[in-house]
Design a protein that fits this description.
The complex is a heterodimer of chains A (456) and B (79). Chain A has 456 residues and is an alpha+beta fold. Chain A has one domain: Cytochrome P450 (Cytochrome p450, Orthogonal Bundle), CATH 1.10.630. Chain A is 52% helix and 9% strand. Chain A has a 6-stranded mixed β-sheet with strand order 1-2-3-9-6-4. In chain A, strands 5-13-10 form a 3-stranded antiparallel β-sheet. In chain A, strands 7-8 form a two-stranded antiparallel sheet. In chain A, a hairpin with a 2-residue loop joins strand 7 and strand 8. In chain A, 51% of the residues are buried. By secondary structure, chain B is of the alpha+beta class. Chain B is 19% helix and 19% strand. In chain B, strand 2 and strand 3 form a beta hairpin. Chain B starts with 7 loop residues before the first strand and ends in a 9-residue tail after the last strand. The chains are: A alpha+beta (456), B alpha+beta (79). The interface between A and B is medium-sized, with 28 and 22 residues. The structure holds iron/sulfur cluster (SF4). The site of iron/sulfur cluster has 14 residues of chain B, from helix 1. Iron/sulfur cluster binds next to helix 1 of chain B.
Chain lengths: 456, 79
């Protein structure tokens, strides 16, 4: 192919025609036939033109995802100009002017926001929260340990990330209840469901609550992520207005809640189905903890993908992308690519070289990845310690109908040999933890604390 | 063979996004910034006996941000 042909407008159209597929990512078919779809697409086209939802590139191969995701120079996440990261694109006006925080921005604004938050979410910053994570987890389990039955989603995996996220934000821990339902329901409810208006309403109420917190933060500063967003210098002293802060806080909540819940639930479901592997994980926890975590992340990819808009004509891995084209980066499919992961559709707790893209790649890498890993490990370890013989009930297990946003679960009931309570339940524990967080200034950024020595 | 290592590595700070997998596979070879979790190789020269861990870190880095500046004959020979 000559250079001329590559640059003629006809070639972009030809590229789309050659690579055309039809895949409804809002259908449960994609979830249920995921492996078939991934294998079919990995055979080619690995950057496909998906003729649904207005047409968009569906990037699915591992190398292709790697090559595309890091091209922030020719791709945009911007919600205002291009409709953001949803497919189909969503006009900010249709969502009350709120956009998805810095995940729907481009640099430099995106970078200013992230820089303001890094010191709250780095490995060192997150390590300070370990005692809090342990304590919420203990309490959530204690609420059920004597009964011998629990719903791993509702009673554990929803609770711990939510309470912790409130703490990180600097919001009252007890507010987790207000944020909990809309954060999950907003993800799993299909947009054509009759329940959607109600869920949207809950989301609006949650936004109003956030607005109250923002307004208070402007007059009564309180350490935490929310304050950091309010105070962030976005270049030349520019600050975010209320709507922008609501968007960023919404992103942190959306990212903090449902994703870790989804990962934990799936891992527990799998371990329940594979008691030999569960025993192995218990036995070899110290050596397998990290590799098992990365493997569950790879295999169950909580956030399945992200949308982008192409900002200039470009060829990537042979596909001719045109300015204005929409594009979906499927982290989930990249994670099942046999050319990179041997037996990609199997879980191997000791997998090495596991460079999965579950936290995204490039400049938009999940800023909460350290929180997610730590929270997941804490919950998993506590379950293995305290209910090692749990059996999940498949008849009561409910997966999200589709993987439109998150590969999640609504219910995962389980039974186990009852055990001894170790302390108070969630409600009482939260009140105690609130005092600890406030008195130790845990929600402050890590840089502030380093000078004073790290807490034991 | 335990002897002098000729393996040298460096993290490209422009590419690293702070995924922390390098420090997970080779905690003695990489430090993470307290502030943003981005990695640096503690010593450019990999201490003898740690080469396999270094290679595992290279393989695990989602951004492929770890450069192998030099290695013994089996450069990049990943299993
Ligand atoms: S694994 Fe790669 S991207 Fe992550 S911290 Fe290490 S060098 Fe940086």
């Amino acid at each position: 192919m000559s250079v001329d042909e590559r640059t003629t407008p006809g070639t972009a159209a030809a590229s789309k025609a050659e690579r055309r597929i039809e895949l409804d990512r809002y259908s449960s078919d994609l979830r249920l036939s995921f492996v078939d779809w991934a294998q079919k697409l990995h055979a080619g086209p690995r950057i496909a033109w998906n003729d649904t939802h207005g047409g968009y590139w569906f990037v699915n191969g591992n190398q292709e995802v790697f090559d595309v995701a890091r091209r922030a120079d020719v791709l945009s996440n911007d919600a205002v100009r291009y409709g953001g990261i949803g497919i189909p694109a969503m006009d900010p006006a249709a969502r009350g002017g709120v956009i998805g925080g810095f995940l729907e921005m481009d640099p430099p604004r995106q970078r200013y926001h992230r820089n303001a938050l890094n010191a709250y979410l780095s490995p060192a910053a997150v390590a300070r929260w370990q005692p809090v994570m342990d304590e919420i987890t203990r309490a959530a389990i204690d609420d059920h340990i004597e009964s011998g039955s629990i719903d791993f989603v509702e009673d554990l995996a929803n609770v711990v990330p939510a309470v912790l996220t409130m703490g990180l934000l600097g919001l009252p821990l007890e507010d987790w209840v207000i944020y909990n339902e809309p954060s999950h329901a907003g993800v799993y409810t299909p947009i054509d469901s009759p329940d959607w208006p109600r869920v949207q309403q809950l989301g609006i109420e949650m936004g109003m609550r956030t607005l109250e917190h923002i307004q208070r933060a402007r007059t009564h500063p309180r350490p935490g992520l929310l304050q950091a967003v309010v105070d962030a210098d976005l270049g030349d002293g520019d600050r975010a207005d209320d709507l922008e802060v609501i968007g960023v806080v919404g992103l942190l909540i959306g990212g903090g809640f449902d994703t870790t819940t989804a990962l934990t639930a799936h891992a527990l479901e799998w371990l329940g189905e594979h008691p030999d592997q569960r025993e192995r994980l218990v036995r070899e926890w110290e050596t397998l903890r990290d590799s098992a975590t990365e493997e569950f992340l790879r295999f169950y990819t909580p956030a399945q993908g992200d949308g982008r808009t192409v900002t200039q004509d470009v060829e990537i891995d042979g596909a001719h992308l045109s300015a204005g084209d929409r594009l979906w980066i499927s982290w989930a499919m990249a994670n099942r690519d046999e050319t990179v992961f041997e037996d990609a559709n199997e879980i191997r707790l000791d997998r090495t070289g596991n460079r999965h893209s579950s936290f995204g790649l490039g400049i938009h890498r999940c800023i909460g990845s350290n929180v997610a890993r730590a929270t997941f490990k804490t919950m998993l370890k506590a379950v293995l310690d305290r209910m090692p013989d749990f059996v999940c009930d498949p008849t009561g297990t409910v997966h999200y109908e589709t993987t439109q946003v998150i590969n999640g679960m609504r219910f995962l009931p389980a039974t186990f040999t009852p055990g001894q309570r170790q302390g108070p339940g969630v409600e009482e524990t939260i009140a105690g933890l609130q005092r600890v967080i406030d008195s130790q200034g845990l929600a402050e950024p890590v840089t502030v604390r380093t000078g004073r020595g790290t807490p034991g | 063979m335990i002897g002098e290592s000729r393996m040298r590595i460096r993290v490209d700070g422009e590419i690293c996004q702070g995924h922390t997998l390098c420090a997970m596979s080779a905690p003695d070879l990489f430090v993470l910034s307290d502030e943003d979790g981005h990695a640096q190789a503690i010593h450019e020269e990999v201490p003898a006996g740690q080469e396999d861990r270094a290679r595992e870190a290279v393989r695990s880095c989602p951004e492929q941000a770890i450069l192998v500046l030099s290695d013994e004959p089996a450069v990049g020979a990943v299993r």
